[in-house]
Structure formats: structure tokens, C-alpha cells
Amino acid sequence: xxxxxxxxxELISSHPNWKLDRETIEVGRAGIAKARAVxxxxxxxxxxxxxxxxxxxxxxxxxxxxxxxxxxxxxTGGGTVTQLVIELPELAAAA
Length: 95
Hints:
two-stranded antiparallel sheet; rod-shaped
């Protein structure tokens, strides 16, 4: 982050009583510094959340690529029953 020295630029001629006193200027600068810090923290959190979401999406995609499914048909006394069997090898191996 680049910090530049600031100066009050007088665009129109102003009344001497309109000038900000030193304390008001310092309070304003401190407020701006706090706002910048909060924005920077929010940006970093958003970036971390986006990275986590991308990682989770990639992991889910990899799992989806490994899903195996097949139809299983059985004759019963009441007719034919067809089941869809879905297998995820990584989960079966862990069990």
C-alpha cells in the first residue's frame, strides 16, 4: 500500500475561521487510517474465503469424477424393482 504525503489544497479563497484546527485534522487522519485498516482486513478475509471456496469446489469436482453408479434390477413377487446403486470408492475404502 502506498502512502503519500497529503496537503490541503485551497481551491477557493476561504475565510480564516473555516480552517480546520490541528486536533480536528489528526482525528480525521486517525479515522481514515482505521477505515483503511478495516477495509484491508475485510479484503483479506474475502480473499481467504474465495480461496477456500475454490479449494472446496475442486475437491467436490474430483469426488464427483470418481462416483460410480449402476442400475440393479431384481424380480420380486410384486414385479420388477430397479435400484440405482451409487458408489464412491474413497468412502468405501475408508469404511
